[in-house]
Amino acid sequence: MTLTREAILSANDLPTQLVHVPEWGGDVLIRSMTGAQRDEYEQQCLATRGADNAINMRNLRARLVVFCAADADGNPLFGTGDVEALGAKSAAALDRLFDVAQRLNRMSGKDIDELGKSSASGRNAGTGSDSPAPSGVPSANANIA
């Protein structure tokens, strides 16, 4: 069966999973990211150093949880301004949520390695373009909350 535009755009294709976090005394709903959110997350994983890009591992787990933790209605639980505070929470709790978020989004350590390789090749990994990213231009998805 060939899908129509309407069928694709109306598909409920963002799976969720409720994760028990004993360190916090309850459950957190983790959902998969949209394509745009995944691109933004991957862009945030890059750190520019002069003409080169490197993988930014700082608060990597907290950043993914910010993109994937949702309330009961599927709305983001956190905003990008919460990354530092969330990064200060239990590593065990963040690891548990990070692992589920990675699985729901079909992400692996290999994906991060590939991101580093694509940035090293001179491609703008955030856009898939060989053109450099414009400097000083804010991202359209800078605030996901």
Explain what the structure shows:
This protein is of the alpha+beta class and 145 residues long. It has a domain at 14-45 and 58-107: 2-Layer Sandwich (rbstp2171), CATH 3.30.2220. It is built from six helices and five strands. The strands form two sheets. The chain has a three-stranded antiparallel beta sheet with strand order 1-2-5. Strand 3 (46-49) and strand 4 form a beta hairpin. Helix 3 crosses helix 5 (91-104). The radius of gyration is 16 Å and the shape is globular. 19% of the residues are buried. The model is unreliable at 122-145 (pLDDT under 50).
Any key phrases for this structure?
6 helices; two-stranded antiparallel sheet; disordered C terminus; rbstp2171; 145 residues
The gyration radius over C-alpha positions equals 16 Å
Strand order of the largest sheet: 1-2-5
> CATH top level of the domain at 14-45 and 58-107?
Alpha Beta
Which fold name fills CATH's third level, the topology of the domain at 14-45 and 58-107? rbstp2171
| C-alpha end-to-end distance | 36 Å
User: So, the CATH homologous superfamily of the domain at 14-45 and 58-107?
Assistant: Phage tail assembly chaperone gp13-like
- By secondary-structure content and strand pairing, the structural class works out as alpha+beta
Question: Which oligomeric form is depicted?
Answer: single chain
Number of distinct helices:
6
Query: Unreliable runs, pLDDT <50, ≥5 residues?
Result: 122-145
